[in-house]
Amino acid sequence: MVRFADLIPVAAAVERLLLPAECLVCQDPVPLREAEALVCGACRSRWPRIPPPWCARCGSPAGRDEPCTVCAAWPDTVDRARSAVWLDEAARRAVHHLKYDGWWRVADAMALAMRGLEPLTGRLSLVPVPLGSRRLRRRGYNQSERIAEALSRSIGAPVRDVLRRTRDTRSQTALTPEERAANVAGAFAAAGTLTGRCVLVDDVFTTGATLLAAAAALRAAGAEHVDAVTFARARNAVGQD
Question: Do 38 and 109 contact (CB within 8 A), yes or no?
Fold first, then answer.
């Protein structure tokens, strides 16, 4: 006798054949071979990678013999920061769907793009940058945590949810670099005592203010090395954390 449960995969396959899923970025049907992907392979391949040469510390594109203007004044809290792609229109749409439209599985596509980043090698712990309590209640999840979880499944590193916001902060979008730094200064704390290498995970790098403030909390808790990775990087490096 055929059980109803045995028919569910067949019914799902027929449904996908008759009503193929649409890519959230280009709105074209997602090929059946890509299963449950929310962003099709063609769109992922068109996300513009950030080519070398880049600054050895912050990952910003820079000439090999030119001083970096992005991280020159950074404190010694972050060892390395790297981003996978430029925040062009297609990458921006993916970030928007993740943060504001409830499509948290977009994090899987982002993690695939981030997999080869330098800090994601060796023994490490993935530490998502936390949201403030108001944004977390409104959104229902932390987008950085979803990216970290997807990375964990991809590279096998553990996720340590050890950071918390000590206060809600203003949106960074319309702030100057100086205002951004002041906005998040002292806004994070780490639980317990940390050892080893921590890799902060966030969606977008702009000025690095959020990452620096979060890294300071990890260092204060004993982390020996702190790196950071993000899915995207704003081209002007001062636009939107």
Answer: yes
- Greatest Cα pair distance in the chain: 73
Please report, in tens digits, the pLDDT of each residue of the chain (241 residues total): 544 345 445 544 544 454 457 888 888 888 777 767 888 888 999 999 998 888 999 998 876 667 788 898 899 999 999 999 999 999 999 999 999 998 999 999 999 999 999 999 999 999 999 998 888 988 899 999 999 999 999 999 999 999 998 876 656 665 556 666 666 666 788 987 888 899 999 999 988 889 999 999 999 999 999 999 999 999 875 333 4
Query: Whole-model pTM?
Result: 0.84
Between strands 163-165 and 188-190, the pairing is antiparallel
CB burial string 201-219: b at 16+ within 10 A, e below: bbbbbbbbbbbbbbbbbbb
Contact between 49 and 59 under an 8 Å Cβ cutoff? The reply is: no
Quote the strand ranges of 64-115, DSSP E: 80-86
Residue 232 to residue 114: CA distance in whole angstroms: 9
Close Cβ partners of 232 (under 8 Å, ≥ 6 residues apart): 83, 84, 85, 86, 87, 91, 92, 95, 203, 204, 205
Domains within the chain, CATH numbers bracketed: 1-46 (no CATH), 48-233 (3.40.50)
Q: Which two tokens stand for residue 153?
A: 């499944």
CB 214 within 8 A of CB 185: no
